[in-house]
Each structure stands twice: as structure tokens, then as C-alpha cells.
Amino acid sequence: MSIEYEVVIGLEVHCQLKTNTKIFCNCSTDYDGKAPNSHTCPACTGHPGTLPKLNKKALEYAIKAGYALNCNINKYSRFDKKNYFYPDNPKAFQTSQFEMPYAEHGYIDIKLDDNSVKRINITRIHMEEDAGKLVHSDIADESYVDLNRASMPLIEIVSEPDMRSSEEAYKFLTKLKSLIKYTGVSDVSMELGSLRCDANVSIRPKGQKEFGTRTETKNLNSFKAVARAIEHEIERQKDLIESGGKVIQETRLWDDNKGVTKSMRVKEDADDYRYFPEVDIPMICVTDEELNKIKMEMPEFPEEKISRFVKEYSIPIYDAEVLSTEKDMADYFEIVAKKSNNAKSASNWIMTEVIRVLNEKSIEIDKFTINPNNLGELIKLIDSNVISNNIAKKVFNTMLDDNREPELIVKEQGLIQITDESELEKIIIDIINANPASVADYKNGKTKAIGFLVGQAMKMTKGKGNPQTLNKILIEKLNQI
Ligand SMILES: [Zn+2]
């Protein structure tokens, strides 16, 4: 009989803060696409004798992220030196927080597939600086050092080993991203490198209390990669144990193309870094007043938004949940709902047409070309019977390209709905005369024929006929025959 295993997952998430300058110097953080080492100074390149100075904005942003993840913010915290040598780190230590992190004891609630809520605890969040980057040459057997990224402000979020499947890890990350994005302190984009995640995975026989030996997997560049790497690691560890081997504590690298993890190095313990206090930076001390000010600036988070949307706009809870995942999406919805004065229709358009386009183009709502006011206007045109739903979809597609006001497009392309009953009646009579077989079908009780005949009439009006009116007139006329 094979043993049943329980999976234990903890995540370490690095998140880059969107400040204008680096964490300990005044170098600009806007180096994307700029020349290597063009955004550096003696401090962030580790010259001896330079003094680091904590960026107040980085601290404020870090605290906001801490509150978003329901953490206690410590009034006193401290930076430490994490000693290690690597060519992208000329100081030979990383300035980080070890003994006294600025935030602890947080949590994220995730909704499982059976709609139950599971709380994933967050051990701590600490502030630290990023390292530079090594650029490996394609042509020569050489590597170059680019220190533009050195001393970029980071927070590292360490979860408790509370997750029991790759799905839970995926949901945790999705919620974490959403919450931090709501605060605006980071882009939290794995693609852009402003969100990075390492996964600690171990397995143990079900019922056993002690944890199994864990591995840490790095080089995960999307949420999907995180889930796949965890799945792979679970299987690898099971195979290893069942064939009589032992899992060793090590750092492994995920190869996304091959779908496997590979050993990178045997894991260092905290002892190996010989942490000691960074005495060049005064201890951080935040007052109640400062914390209260930051609390006042916190946004309305998804949970509060969901209940407000349900109450204020009378939309289903499912709609409210989808619309509140991203703050920009929620803002977009509110503008469309207010402009159109029809929240349910606003929600329907966003949940179907808008999200379809976002998925097709792999973009987020901030890159969506239709201005929410114009989408609101489009819904108004449907509600006031100026255009039909079908025509509205055509106008929507035109708006995608040029984002002009829908009214202009409707006028220019002559799309105004025909509501004049005498005009529609003439069309119906023509359709009845041209389709005797369908008329006979209807007379023989095949009501499906109605759909076909209305379709023909819609075709004749180039989609501009009002389908309800056409339907009504058709039935009247058929019943007179
Ligand atoms: Zn600098």
C-alpha cells in the first residue's frame, strides 16, 4: 500500500517598491532601457566610506504593503548586514532586516474552490535592497556587471508554511498581487521583475507532525510557473522517498521549458550569512501619528468594495468579485455604471466584451483603448433604443480601434435602429412572401420558424431593426394568414 503524503508549501515573495529614488541613495529608479551603470553613485556601488540614508518614501510604501497584508507594523525596526559575496553585490553584504523586521503577523484570506475561506499567515515582511545584475555575453566567455538595479527598494514577504497545494499557492499569490496593487506602492509584475517568488516545498506522510526536508525553488517567472514547479517538486520528492532516497535541503532552479527543477546549491542557513546590525543606518522608529496618517491613506480593499458594489449597484456577488480583483478594473466599472445609469449592463459588458478583449490581447485594463465614459454612452444608446444590442457590438469593435464617441460612430455609419413600425411592417410582409416554406412550418406548429424569419428581417435591415418589434409584427401577421 502506498503512503499518502501531505504537501507543505511556504512562499517568499520579493516585491519592488515604486519609489522615484533608490532605498539608500538619491539615484533615480528610472533606469529601464538606459545604459548599464548609468544610474549609480558611490553609495549603491559599495564604495567604502559612503553613508546610506533610508528613503522615507520606501518606508512609507513598505508600511502600506504591510497594512494591505494585515500585518502589525513594528514601531521599532532595524537594518542588518547579510554578508555574502557575489559579483553583482560589490559591498559584499546586502542591507536587509533580520532580527527586527518592520512588519509581522499578517495574513491573506483566500477563497477555495468549495467557496470556503482559508487563512494563510504571513510570518514577516522585511525591507531590503536589491542586488545588481550580471549580463552574460553571447559571443565571448565573459560576464558584465550592471549595478543600475543595486539598492532598488524591496520588501520580502515570508509566508507561514500554511499552503497544502499548488492551487492554494496560486490563489495566495493572486490575492497578494491584488492587495499590493490596490495600494499603488508597486507594479507587482512578474513579467517586469517587480514581483519575484521562491517556493519552499516539502512533503510528509499524512498525520505526521514534523515537517519533511524542504527545497527552495527559484527562477519562477509567472504564477503558472510557480504552480507547475510546485507540482513537479512534489512528484520528484515522492519518487525520491519511495525509491529509498532522501530529500536534501537545497536551492533548486525551475526550467520552464523542460518543466523540471534542477539543483543549484545546497542551501545556506541563516548562520552562513553572519548577520550583524548595520550601524550606519539609525534604528527605524515610527510614531503613532505617522502610522495613523498612512492608515488614512489606505484604499478601499476588494472585500469592502465587493459588499459596497452589491449594495450600491445591485449587481450579483460574483460580478462584484470579478470586477474588484483589480483596482483599475473596479474604477473602470464605476465610471461605466455611473455614466450609463445601468450598473447591471455595465457589469455585463465588462465581464464579457471587455474581459474578452483583455484576454485576447493579453493586456490589463489600464491599456484598454475604450474610455469608460464612452462605454457608458454606448449602453445609454442601447437603453434609449437608439441602437440594438447587436449593432452596439459593432460600434464597440469600431471604438476599440479609434475610441471615438459612440454617437459619432452611429451617426457616421447610419446605424440608428429602425423603430418605425410601418417601415418594419413592410419588411415583414416581404419576408413572409419570400419564405412560404417557413410560414407553412409555423402554421404546422414549428415555432422555431419564427427565429429564422426574424433573422431574415434583421438581415434585410442590416441589423438595424428592433428585434422585439420585428418579432411582435411577424407573429401578428402570421396569425392573420
Ligand atoms: Zn546610488
Structural write-up:
By secondary structure, the protein is of the alpha+beta class. The chain has 3 domains: 5-291, no CATH class; 300-412, no CATH class; 421-480, Arc Repressor Mutant, subunit A. The chain has helices at residues 56-68, 166-183, 223-242, 288-296, 302-313, 317-324, 327-340, 343-361, 372-383, 389-402, 406-412, 421-434, 436-443, 448-460, 467-480, and strands at 5-16, 72-73, 76-77, 80-83, 93-96, 103-111, 117-129, 133-136, 143-146, 153-159, 195-205, 215-220, 250-255, 260-266, 276-277, 284-285. The strands form 4 sheets. The protein has a 9-stranded mixed β-sheet. A 3-stranded antiparallel β-sheet has the order 5-4-15, with no helix packed on it. A hairpin with a 4-residue loop joins strand 13 and strand 14 (260-266). Helix 2 runs antiparallel to helix 3 and helix 13 (436-443) packs antiparallel against helix 14 (448-460). The radius of gyration is 30 Å and the shape is elongated. The chain binds zinc ion (ZN). Zinc ion is lined by residues 22, 25, 27, 40-41, 43-44, 151.
Which helices and strands, and how do they pair?
Layout: E1 5-16, H1 56-68, E2 72-73, E3 76-77, E4 80-83, E5 93-96, E6 103-111, E7 117-129, E8 133-136, E9 143-146, E10 153-159, H2 166-183, E11 195-205, E12 215-220, H3 223-242, E13 250-255, E14 260-266, E15 276-277, E16 284-285, H4 288-296, H5 302-313, H6 317-324, H7 327-340, H8 343-361, H9 372-383, H10 389-402, H11 406-412, H12 421-434, H13 436-443, H14 448-460, H15 467-480
Parallel strand pairs: 12-13
Antiparallel strand pairs: 1-10, 1-11, 2-6, 3-16, 4-5, 4-15, 6-7, 7-10, 8-9, 11-12, 13-14
Helix pairs in contact: 1-2, 2-3, 5-6, 6-8, 7-8, 7-9, 9-10, 12-14, 12-15, 13-14, 14-15
The chain binds zinc ion (ZN).
